Amino acid sequence: MSGTLAGWLQIVALVAALALTYRPLGDAIAHVLTTPRHLRAERLVYRLAGVDGDADQRWSAYLRGVLAFSAVSVLFLYGFLRLQSCLPLSLGRPPMPADQSFNTAASFVTNTNWQSYSGESTLGHLVQMAGLAVQNFVSAAVGIAVVAALIRGFTRTGTDRVGNFWVDLTRIVLRVLLPLAFVFAIVLVAGGVIQNFHGVETVPTIAGGHQSVIGGPVASQEVIKELGTNGGGFYNANSSHPFENPNAFTNWLEIYLLLAIAFALPRTFGRMAGDHRQGYAIVAVMALIWAASVAIVTVNELHGVSSRAGHAAGGMAEGKEQRLGVWASALFAAATTLTSTGAIDSAHDSYSPFGGGMTIFNMMLGEIAPGGTGSGLYGMLVLAVIAVFVAGLMVGRTPEYLGKKLRGREMKFASLYILTTPAVVLAGAGLAMARPGERAGMLNPGPHGFSEVLYAFTSAGNNNGSAFAGLSVDTAWYNTVLGLAMLFGRFLPMVFVLALAGSLAGQAPVPVTAGTLPTHRPQFVGLLTAVVLIVVGLTYFPALSLGPLAEGLQ
């Protein structure tokens, strides 16, 4: 079978699998978020936490729950990392330094999973399982909980209540993430991903030498790393390591897992809103952007080289696993940067200028196609609010979306949401370039070196977690500043999303008239897609011009 045919078949199979699970998975999540029935295990959790499972919260109380839970999670994980040498299954690893512990704790609690360390040589098994893997579950659940509150803001009227954060968090973990992770972890083990408690073992090599091999509970962490759009690798090589991703099947499955929930959530939105057409419109925009990104990255990696050697090799083979190839690597790169996953099966730093630039642009979009678990959908819904407002300006009419007026208050929250992440990314990158010591951390000169810095702050501010590499970030300054960028990039947007939810929930419904913009038709899909691209293009174009665009045009 030719590489081209194999590449097309895996894309077709991926689209088919996502289409088949869109409805049942989206409906199941909607049921979890709306049913009044509590499971016995959930009641036990509420009792232990002192939570009233039947109480509804104002948006401000919901936000306090999100922030309090996340703050405790950061402190717990920070302590775990600092006390590692005192814990069982530490494999003799020393405590992680203070600045790196802060960076790692902020990273995993914010669903970023940026890693300035090598996992197999830095962390023991207990910290990997009880520290990092646990945060992979709950940070993903926090994102879904926040988008659930926003959807309730659109669907509820005349109330100041948007749900119960503790109930949403518990249900998402126990009813959605844990069952799916259990099933697919077994599939990964069957596919060759390791799952054991081995420490460092020395094995003979074919050449007659010896090599140290580190085992561990990899499959159980790998599955939630992808399913929860987390991305942190058990090994430094992440999903390019054969113990995490041994073959073409596991590679395809991991791409599916990192897209499945995010692509199903628009169905959840449509079901909770009482109009499935609204969900179809949102997922259509996501699919269009995703397809365009996959095409651009793949074409540039296959044909974006001028040398005969590059064409003879079948594309830009440098930095890619030969057992996976260019097509699978490009598909993974587009998917992981369009979501907040950050897992990698190839070195993005070695991509062609425009191929690598597209991975940066994917994150700059806000990771909304389909985005992270929950964060992708609430980002797209905020952009839908912007799009409806733009349409209202064009016809001279007060904009309405799902029966709610978009007044000045709502537009302020939406505008602050749109401006927050670019401010974090561009300010951080500018500050790094202004400091001689941090510029010295770039291992490449010129536009490519700037792209490495821009990628790092784009990844941190958008809670992606992947890296361009070629940049020395394990310094006190980078660990601290990137850690702050992750925290601001995660929780400031959540503040504005929940404030928007509370403002919308308090409104009375507006009747649909002949002048109401239909938000389920192809025209709105085109408008929303254009708004997404224009907003991002105007915000980041100067920075992109100094980095990947300048490199590609050289």
From TrEMBL:
This is Potassium-transporting ATPase potassium-binding subunit. Part of the high-affinity ATP-driven potassium transport (or Kdp) system, which catalyzes the hydrolysis of ATP coupled with the electrogenic transport of potassium into the cytoplasm. This subunit binds the extracellular potassium ions and delivers the ions to the membrane domain of KdpB through an intramembrane tunnel. It is a multi-pass membrane protein. The gene is kdpA. It comes from Streptomyces endocoffeicus. The lineage of its organism: Bacteria, Bacillati, Actinomycetota, Actinomycetes, Kitasatosporales. It comes from the Bacteria. It is found in: Cell membrane. HAMAP family: KdpA. The system is composed of three essential subunits: KdpA, KdpB and KdpC. It holds the Pfam family KdpA. InterPro entries: KdpA. Belongs to the KdpA family. The chain crosses the membrane at residues 6-25, 61-81, 126-151, 172-194, 249-267, 279-299, 375-395, 416-434, 481-504, 524-543. Keywords: Cell membrane, Ion transport, Membrane, Potassium, Potassium transport, Transmembrane, Transmembrane helix, Transport.
